[in-house]
Design goal:
MetI-like fold; about 80% helix
């Protein structure tokens, strides 16, 4: 298993390099100069513009800039933000807990709702509830997040007034950061159950929107995986013994069907991080996604390059861990690797 893990790490290196080229090159294809944006509409003299470009290293040839960026990235130095003059890693990890908190709750919603929906659909294969549930999951999977988020805001925040529109907690609660995870910070600072549920109230709607696509994917995978397992001989034996459909599925079939479901759930973390860019922008959530969008508008090259590379590194690491976990859970895969 260790050899397989190391093999996957080596295979990820070309992907990491391609991502670095993408992160470096795409932002430079967009119109706009970060120096001119910093100087404002009136701009400055050509001498001042040239001096600032030299300070930022933007006067050097693109290959030189790229290899300088790649060298620094391999050393853990992604440069400093053009806008704030703070290290990119400091800004990234300062905002990462907000995105992680949102992503974990979205994944939790996707798993807790998606798996039961898939189980019910598999147990009622071909019946009306199977068609309804799979239609709902297909609808959720194909839903554009930005449109879905706006609809949910109009319904639950504007018309019903059940949830806040944006932010992480009510301004009446002055929470001193400790871990960056607001639910933990509220609990540690002993603001009481009211403060905790206030922070949770701000999390519900964006996590629901963000978890819709993963929930639909997990539901469909659960159904497909269960239908395959239900064809096995040991399941037929359990049915022949007189066990009810629910007992057959939960006690015998679900444990083996969980292998691909766990894999899909792990891979959905990448989808959640991708969707967080739009979700955080819609709900003004102070995480990595909103930070990257603001940086694109400001043409903050170091932030965009470093942010994309750090997110990609996180997603690649998750994929490697999921593949290794799949190898551990599936004896057939272990035998094939030997």
């Amino acid at each position: 298993m260790i050899s397989y893990f190391l093999k996957r790490v080596l295979q990820a290196i070309p992907t990491f390099l391609l991502v670095s080229v993408f992160a470096f090159g795409v932002i430079r294809l967009l119109p706009g100069d970060p120096v001119l944006l910093m100087l404002g509409e009136r701009g400055g003299s050509p001498e001042l513009v040239a001096e600032m470009r030299a300070q930022l290293g933007l006067d050097q040839p693109l290959p030189v800039q790229y290899f300088k960026f790649l060298k620094g990235s391999l050393q853990g130095n992604f440069g400093e933000s053009i806008v704030s003059n703070r290290p990119v890693t400091e800004e990234f990890f300062g905002r990462f807990p907000a995105t992680a908190e949102l992503g974990v709750l979205a994944l939790l919603f996707a798993v807790l709702v998606g798996i039961p929906l898939g189980i019910v659909a598999a147990m009622m294969r071909g019946k009306i509830w199977d068609r309804v549930l799979m239609g709902v999951s297909l609808f959720g999977y194909s839903m554009p997040i930005f449109w879905w988020g706006l609809l949910m805001i109009l319904l639950f925040s504007v018309h019903l007034g059940w949830t806040p529109v944006s932010g992480r907690i009510s301004p009446m609660y002055d929470v001193e950061p400790w871990s960056g995870f607001l639910l933990i910070d509220v609990w540690v600072r002993d603001l009481g159950g009211e403060g905790f549920f206030n922070a949770l109230k701000y999390l519900i709607l964006p996590s629901f929107v963000l978890g819709t696509v993963p929930m639909a994917a997990i539901a469909r995978m659960t159904r497909s995986s269960l239908l395959e397992v239900l064809k096995e001989d040991y399941v037929r034996t359990a049915q022949a013994k007189g066990l009810g459909p629910f007992q057959v599925v939960v006690r015998h079939a679900l444990s083996n069907a969980m292998i691909p479901i766990v894999t899909v759930a792990g891979l959905m973390l990448g989808t959640i991080l991708t969707g967080a860019v739009l979700t955080e922008s819609i709900f003004s959530w102070p995480g990595i996604g909103k930070w990257l969008v603001s940086s694109v508008i400001a043409r903050d090259y170091p932030v965009i390059q470093g942010g994309i590379l750090l997110i990609s590194g996180f997603v690649i690491s998750i994929n490697i861990l999921v593949d290794t976990l799949y190898l551990y859970l599936n004896p057939k895969m272990r035998e094939a690797q030997q």
